[in-house]
Amino acid sequence: MSEFFDGLSDPLALALLGLLIAAVWAFWVRKRLLGGLLSILFLWLYFLGITPGADLLLRPLEDAHPALIMPPSREVAAVVVLTGGEAASPGRPVTSDLSESSLERLIEGIRVWRMLGKSVPLIFVGGAGIPGRGAESPLMAAAAMALGVPEEVISWESTSRNTYENALAVQDILGKRPFVLVTSAFHMPRAVEIFRKLGTTPIPAPCGQRTLRAYIPYDFIPRAINLWHAAHALREYLAILWYRLRYSQGIASDTQ
Fold this sequence. Notes:
This protein is α/β, with parallel strands linked by helices. It contains nine helices and five strands; from the N terminus they run ααααβαβαβαβαβα.
């Protein structure tokens, strides 16, 4: 029962409850068009707000590449970790300066690096993803060193602003040599497609998977976090489509 009331305290659940009441009221006073529109809006937001609904959008992206549990069968030149956002602020530990996505990618990058024997280079790739913010890769490198990775195996690239430029930077550094590519699971399909089209040889190591394989009643209570997951999935589908349209016209560009 406590989980039920926890769910109802979510802003999205409260907003949907108000929307449902408004829809019932509209039908009650015979404003059927308004009631119908409110009902459609309610159902759409409810679908995106529950875990199974958000997962339905995320799963095709996250399942495109399996997690890298065992070492690759071939030798790799490096572990490449794409940055995922930062919010640097003085007086905080460097791990707190990283976004959730960056922290997940950092941890997975270190795990893979350790699995490969700690001798391969660990390369962080990504500059300022948002104008006005600082470069992200130096922060991830500093966090890696704070977590015990030797400075001599770490390097970073801090000028690329999106996934396409990330791939160009890695192409310059590694050429066609195989490397492990670490990024969020939902972002991996687009990243692998771009990297491979540019002639590089990534071995995917997705991280930060959000989807579930089984559900409990609590998962059908709408929560704002699921809207965030659904928004990431929808944005990723649009980014993939945009890249393919641009690439088909011979214009190499990307939206992240």
